[in-house]
Design brief:
seven-stranded mixed sheet; alpha/beta; five-stranded parallel sheet
Length: about 400
C-alpha cells in the first residue's frame, strides 16, 4: 500500500488541470494521478471531426505528455473508494492511501442502455453514428457525406450529458453540408431531443430557435431515444410528457448516448442521491469528508458539464484544498461559470457563457447570442491551443 499527500482519481481534463494548478501554486506537493488510459483526448473538437472539418487524430496526445511534471502517474483504474479510511483500491490490485483526495472521473457513456445501439454505432452500413467516442466519431462524417436522400435524425437524451450543446451542433453542420452538397431538398433533418426546448439558458434561446427555423429542421422536443431496430432502421422514442412510444424511420441516426456517474462512484459513499460526488457548489469540498474534493463531470456541481467549466473550477479547487491543507477555511468561490460554443454551421457559432443562475457571463463586449465567424474560429483554432498549452498546464 502506497501513500501520497494528494491522490487524484482521473487523468482527464479535470484531473490534469487541477494537478497542474496545485503544482504551480505549491511546487513539491506529493501528487499521484490514477488514470488507466495511455491516450488523452481533446473531446470538444469531435463535433468538427464529425462534421468533416478535421481528422480525429488532431484530438489525441499521449497521456505521458500531459501529466504535469512533479506528479506521479499510476496507470490503473479505481476499483473502489473508502473515504473513511482515506483509501483508494486499484483494479490491478493494491491500494493507495491519501491525505487529500480529488475525484475527477468524468462521466460514463451508457451505450448499452439503448437496445440496438452498442452493436450498430459506428458500424458500416447501419446508418448509426456518434461524435461521443474516438472510435465512432469518424463514422459521423462518413454517414453525413454519403447521405443523398432520406431522413437524418440527431438525438439528445434525458440524462445529464457532457457538452450539452453538442447534440444540436452536429445537426446544424449536417444540414449545412446537405445544402452545400445540393441534396437538402431530398433530406429531412430531425432534431429529436428529450429536453422541452432548444437550450436551457433563456438568453440564447431566441437566436437558436431562429437557426432551427432558418435551416428548416424538424425539432421534436420531449422525445427520448429508447431503442434502435437495426433491421428496419427504426428509432423508437418515448414521449417524455405522455409516455407514448413513437417510431421514426431513419437513414442516418446520430446518437448522443445516455450518460451517468461512473459505476465505481455509485457505490462509493461519496455520491448524493443521484450518485454524483456530493460537493459544496461554491468551494468544491465534499459535504461529508473535508479532505475530499471533486470537479468536472462526475461532481454534483449544478452547471453544464464542459471543459470551460473545468477551466474555472480547477483554480478554485486548488486554492481551497491548499487552504485546508494549511489549516484555513476554503475561500475561493466558484460561481458556476460554464461555456457552450454552439456551432450553427460551417463558419458560424454562438458562444454561450453563463453561470449557476443561467445568466450570461460573457467574455466579449458584443452580444454573443449572435452567430459570428470570429467565434467559430475561436473554437476551431484557438481553443485547442489554449487547452493543450494553457489549461492543461494550469496557465489558463
Amino acid at each position: 500500500m502506497k501513500h501520497h499527500q494528494i491522490v487524484i482519481a482521473g487523468g482527464g481534463s479535470a484531473g490534469i488541470t487541477v494537478a497542474a494548478h496545485l503544482l504551480n501554486k505549491q511546487p513539491g506537493l506529493d501528487i499521484a494521478i490514477i488514470e488507466p488510459s495511455a491516450t488523452h483526448y481533446y473531446q470538444p473538437i469531435w463535433t468538427l471531426v464529425g462534421g468533416g472539418v478535421f481528422d480525429k487524430s488532431v484530438s489525441e496526445r499521449s497521456q505521458a505528455e500531459v501529466i504535469p511534471a512533479g506528479a506521479k502517474w499510476i496507470q490503473d483504474r479505481v476499483a473502489s473508494f473508502d473515504a473513511g479510511a482515506n483509501t483508494v483500491t486499484l483494479e490491478k490490485g493494491g491500494a493507495v492511501t491519501y491525505d487529500y483526495l480529488i475525484v475527477a472521473l468524468g462521466i460514463q457513456l451508457d451505450w448499452g442502455k439503448i437496445p440496438g445501439l452498442a452493436e450498430t454505432v459506428g458500424k458500416p452500413g447501419t446508418g448509426v453514428c456518434s461524435n461521443y467516442a474516438y472510435d465512432t466519431v469518424a463514422s459521423t462524417w462518413e454517414n453525413i457525406r454519403s447521405l443523398k436522400k432520406g431522413t437524418a435524425i440527431f438525438t439528445q437524451p434525458s440524462t445529464p450529458i457532457k457538452c450539452g450543446g453538442a447534440p444540436q451542433k452536429i445537426c446544424y453542420l449536417a444540414e449545412d453540408h446537405f445544402q452545400r452538397a445540393g441534396v437538402r431538398g431530398q433530406v429531412n433533418v430531425v432534431f429529436a431531443s428529450a429536453a422541452d426546448g432548444i437550450f436551457h439558458v433563456p438568453h440564447y434561446v431566441p437566436a437558436l430557435n431562429r437557426v432551427v427555423a432558418r435551416r428548416h429542421i424538424d425539432a421534436k422536443y420531449k422525445h427520448d431515444l429508447v431503442e434502435i431496430k437495426p433491421a428496419s432502421r427504426e428509432a423508437i422514442f418515448k414521449r417524455m410528457d405522455t409516455g407514448e412510444l413513437v417510431s421514426m424511420a431513419f437513414d442516418l441516426l446520430h446518437v448522443t448516448p445516455p450518460m451517468s456517474v461512473p459505476d465505481v462512484l455509485k457505490t462509493s459513499g461519496l455520491g448524493n442521491e443521484a450518485g454524483w460526488v456530493n460537493v459544496d457548489k461554491g468551494t468544491l469540498q465534499h459535504v461529508n469528508f473535508p479532505n475530499v474534493f471533486s470537479l468536472g463531470d462526475c461532481s454534483s456541481l449544478p452547471t453544464s458539464k464542459t471543459g470551460a467549466a473545468i477551466r474555472k473550477q480547477a483554480p478554485a479547487l486548488a486554492d481551497n484544498l491548499l487552504a485546508v491543507l494549511r489549516g484555513h477555511a476554503p475561500a475561493h468561490v466558484y460561481d458556476g461559470y460554464t461555456s457552450c460554443p454552439l456551432v450553427t454551421g460551417y463558419g458560424s457559432l454562438i458562444l454561450a457563457e453563463f453561470d449557476y443562475d443561467k445568466k450570461p457571463a460573457e467574455t466579449f463586449a458584443f452580444d454573443q447570442s449572435q452567430e459570428r465567424y470570429s467565434m467559430y474560429a475561436l473554437k476551431a483554432y484557438a481553443l485547442p491551443q489554449i487547452y493543450w498549452h494553457g489549461m492543461l498546464k494550469g496557465r489558463a
